[in-house]
């Protein structure tokens, strides 16, 4: 197996060799991409040999075999529901080797859901090493395109999220929260590439307001040292800019006086920020002058003039935020550096300054064993993707290995991990864009079945249908029925929010009060999964849901428009989500009234069944 680049020692001399570190990382990438199939065989063999006696593999009759052909013949391709009983046993305290020979150290909560609750992905301690490895490759790659980044700081808005404990005592939390709370991040050795404006204490503060306020304040205090800015998702970075737009007078006051706002009460945060914050009337005046201007176009380059690029995810549903980012950044390069999920960290972007539409990721073959399920477009007009939920025996045999994918073809990603997932369907659809040596590079196309997304939330068509079905019961006393509906993720507001367009048939004589439509909004939100409800109630990353009532005949007009573009009248179905700007404009032009959810839906950390166990 190729040797991963070594970490820097904790104590380093002033002439810490960035160039040597970069060279090792780039050599590692060259090495693993030159022989991906050979490495993938070794990875699978290692995973299967160390887990030979786990219950799951024995149940399927693998009998200690470690070769690829036997594995593919015997082990089924699965989705989360197929292992949910095993996951629940581990969550409830069963410590026997069910999925993995190594102890499960915690669960990583996926943004994908099952039965309305976050999926729980098992992980083991050594996975932190693999995640750290992938992070260590990012800046050596970036340095080839933007040299000198080790001479300044990165202003990254990073946050932890709520965590819970399973009945068996294991922590369940998002993968980034797990990483930020680990010693790999908190006690990371000196590295000029992880020199951030935000002290660890501000990142690890569980109060989202205090965390955001203190991170923005530190970024302003160190504005001349900032060479790159970013967050995980584009939506999160835009929220930080909007936070500055709202709170800059208070931030300027702190900078002017060198004192920290009394609303920041966390002692460790106060101590860390006050090491950076000093009275600076000149800087306060500068920030005040820029923020007072009517237009905020280019505010990033005005306040942080040395910034070279914006490091955020803008692929998939995050692409909807590109125009807003361009506006605030004056067109700075938007950089997507890596591809990862709760199940596994996958790969890196080796051409980070490419256009967002051209982003491709090179999967690092040492991270896990990768397979690819071919997918097909099933509708020329809607460009929808056909990925079956359950696979026939023939389809199970159609999966191809990393080294065997074909240029231009689309696949659903399937992974086998060191932590106990075997032939697990991640749900991401990828297209082969090219090759680095012998290793394929993939465009991220979409998340399977997702119709609506604002932040990390993912709402599919079935969930949307059920939510609408629950909501329309509020209309029954008024003899009103829902004729047709569609939806839209509106990101022109910050935070973005879901919009439902409803066409009604009202037979009753009593007018429907606005409060009833507001109840419909809330009922819809209450029916959504826990990731959406957390985004609304806790993270404040999603705005109140809006229902827009449209004129009678609107959806007939929508069908006419689709047919004019080439849709078949015999096969036309109302789309449950719209993105195409002219269609959104058509719908908005026929709105007669609109209503917002009056309050946040209920949400609590953990799974509902855990709450029931605690209360019983």
Report the average pLDDT across residues: 84
- The helix tally amounts to 22
| β-strand number | 24
- Tell me the radius of gyration: 25 Å
* Beta-strand content estimate: 15-25%
| Helix/strand structural class | alpha+beta
Description:
It comes from Heracleum sosnowskyi. Belongs to the IAA-amido conjugating enzyme family. InterPro entries: GH3, GH3_C, GH3_M. Keywords: Ligase. GO terms for molecular function: indole-3-acetic acid amido synthetase activity. Helix 1 packs across helix 6, helix 10 packs across helix 11 (234-257) and helix 17 runs antiparallel to helix 18. A hairpin with a 7-residue loop joins strand 13 (376-377) and strand 14. The two termini are 50 Å apart. The strands form 6 sheets. An 8-stranded antiparallel beta sheet has the order 9-10-11-18-17-16-12-15. The protein has a 4-stranded mixed beta sheet with strand order 2-1-5-4. It has 616 residues and is an alpha+beta fold. The protein is 36% helix and 21% strand. The longest helix has 24 residues, at 234-257. The protein contains 22 helices and 24 strands.
């Amino acid at each position: 197996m190729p040797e991963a680049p070594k970490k820097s020692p904790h104590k380093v001399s002033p002439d810490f060799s960035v160039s040597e570190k970069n060279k090792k990382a780039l050599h590692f990438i060259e090495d693993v991409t030159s022989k991906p199939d050979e490495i993938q065989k070794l990875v699978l063999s290692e995973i299967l040999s160390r887990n030979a006696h786990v219950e799951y593999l024995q149940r399927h009759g693998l009998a200690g075999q470690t070769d690829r052909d036997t594995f593919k013949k015997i082990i089924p391709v699965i989705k989360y529901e197929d292992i949910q009983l095993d996951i629940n046993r581990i969550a409830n305290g069963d410590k026997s080797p069910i999925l993995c020979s190594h102890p499960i150290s915690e669960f990583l909560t996926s943004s994908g859901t099952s039965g309305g609750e976050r999926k729980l992905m098992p992980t083991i301690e050594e996975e932190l090493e693999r995640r750290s490895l992938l992070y260590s490759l990012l800046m050596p790659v970036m340095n080839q395109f933007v040299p000198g980044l080790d001479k300044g700081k990165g202003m990254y808005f990073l946050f932890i999220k709520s965590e819970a404990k399973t009945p068996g005592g294991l922590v369940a939390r998002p993968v980034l929260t797990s990483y930020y709370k680990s010693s790999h991040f908190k006690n990371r050795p000196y590295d000029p590439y992880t020199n951030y404006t935000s002290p660890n204490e501000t990142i690890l503060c569980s109060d989202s307001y205090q965390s955001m306020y203190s991170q923005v304040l530190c970024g302003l205090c160190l504005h001349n040292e900032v060479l790159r800015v970013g967050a995980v998702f584009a939506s999160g970075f835009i929220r930080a800019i909007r936070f500055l737009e709202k709170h800059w007078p208070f931030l300027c006051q702190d900078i002017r006086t060198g004192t920290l706002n009394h609303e920041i009460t966390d002692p460790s945060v106060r101590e860390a920020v006050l090491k950076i914050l000093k009275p600076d009337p000149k800087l306060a005046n500068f920030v005040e002058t820029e923020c007072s201007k009517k237009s905020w176009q280019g505010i990033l380059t005005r306040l942080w003039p040395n910034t070279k690029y914006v490091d955020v995810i803008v692929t998939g549903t995050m692409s909807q935020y590109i125009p807003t980012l361009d506006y605030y950044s004056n067109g700075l390069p938007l950089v997507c550096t890596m591809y990862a999920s709760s199940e596994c960290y996958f790969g890196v972007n080796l051409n980070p300054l490419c256009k967002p539409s051209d982003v491709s990721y090179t999967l690092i073959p040492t991270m896990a064993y990768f397979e690819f399920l071919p997918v097909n477009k099933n509708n020329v007009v809607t460009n929808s993707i056909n990925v079956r939920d359950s696979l026939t025996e023939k389809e199970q045999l159609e999966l191809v290995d990393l080294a065997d994918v074909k240029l231009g073809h689309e696949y659903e990603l399937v992974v086998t991990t060191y932590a106990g997932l075997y032939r697990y369907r991640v749900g991401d659809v990828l297209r082969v864009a090219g090759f680095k040596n012998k290793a394929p590079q993939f465009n991220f196309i979409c998340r399977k079945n997702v119709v609506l997304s604002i932040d990390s939330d993912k709402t599919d068509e079935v969930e949307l249908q059920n939510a609408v079905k629950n909501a329309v019961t509020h209309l029954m006393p008024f003899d009103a029925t829902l004729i047709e509906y569609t939806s839209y993720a509106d990101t022109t507001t910050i935070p973005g929010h879901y919009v439902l367009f409803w066409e009604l048939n009202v037979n009753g004589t009593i007018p429907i009060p606005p409060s009833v439509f507001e109840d419909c909004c809330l009922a819809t939100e209450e029916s959504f999964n826990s990731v959406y409800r957390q985004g609304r109630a806790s993270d404040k990353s999603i705005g109140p849901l809006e229902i827009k009532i449209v004129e009678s005949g609107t959806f007939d007009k929508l069908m006419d428009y689709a047919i004019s573009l080439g849709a078949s009248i015999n096969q036309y179905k109302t789309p449950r989500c719209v993105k195409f700007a002219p269609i959104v404009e058509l719908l908005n032009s026929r709105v007669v009234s609109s209503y917002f959810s009056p309050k946040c839906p209920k949400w609590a950390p953990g799974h509902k069944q855990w709450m029931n166990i605690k209360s019983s």
